[in-house]
Amino acid sequence: MGVVFLLTSCEKVVELDYKGNQSRIVIEGNISNQPGPYIVKIRKSVALTQTGAYPTVDNAVVIISDNAGHADTLIAQGNGTYLTRKLQGMEGRTYTLAITAENQSYAAQSTMPERVPFDGIKVEEVIFGGETEFNIIPEYVDPAQKGNNYRFELSANDKLMNQHFVQNDEVKNGLKNTARLELSDDEDLKLKRGDVITLKMQCVDAKVALYYKTLALIGDSGPGGGITPNNPPGNISNGALGVFSAHTSETKSITIP
Amino acid sequence: MFKKVVLTSLLLLFGGALMAQSRYTVSGTVKQKSSGETLIGVTVVVAGQPTMGVITNEYGFYSISLPKGSYSLRFSYVGYQQQTMPVNLDANVKVNIELSDDISLQEVVVTSKKDDDNLTQAVMGTETLNMKTASKIPVVFGEKDLVKTIQLMPGVKSNGEGSNGFSVRGGATDQNLILLDEAPVYNASHLLGIFSTFNSDAIKDATIIKGNSPAQFGGRLSSVLDVKMKEGNNKNYQVSGGIGLISSRLTVEGPIQKNKSSFIISGRRTYADLFAKLSSDLKDTKLYFYDLNMKANLEINDKNKLFFSGYFGKDVLGISTLFNSKWGNSTGTLRWNRLISSKLFSNTSFIYSNYDFNVGFKSDGAETNFNSHIKDLNLKQDFTWFANVKNNIRFGFNIIHHTITPTKAGGTDIVSTKKDRKGLENAVYVANAYKATERLSLDYGLRFSFYNVLGGDTYNIYRNNELVKSITLADGKTGKTYINWEPRFSANYRLNDVSSVKAGYARNTQSLHLMSNSTGGSPTDQWIGNSYNIKPGVADQFSAGYSRNFDDNAYELNAEAYYKSMKNQIDYRDGADINTVPDIESELLFGKGRAYGLEILFKKKTGKLTGWIGYTLSKTERQINGINGGAWYNAKHDRTHDLSVVGIYTLSENWTLSGTFIYNTGNAVTFPTGKYPLNDMVMYQYGNRNADRMPATHRLDLSATFERPSRRRFQGSWSFGLYNVYGRKNPYLMTFKENKTDPGKIDAVQTSLFQWVPSISYNFKF
Question: Where do the domains of chain B lie, and which CATH numbers do they carry?
Answer without folding.
Answer: 14-99 (2.60.40.10), 226-765 (2.40.170.20)
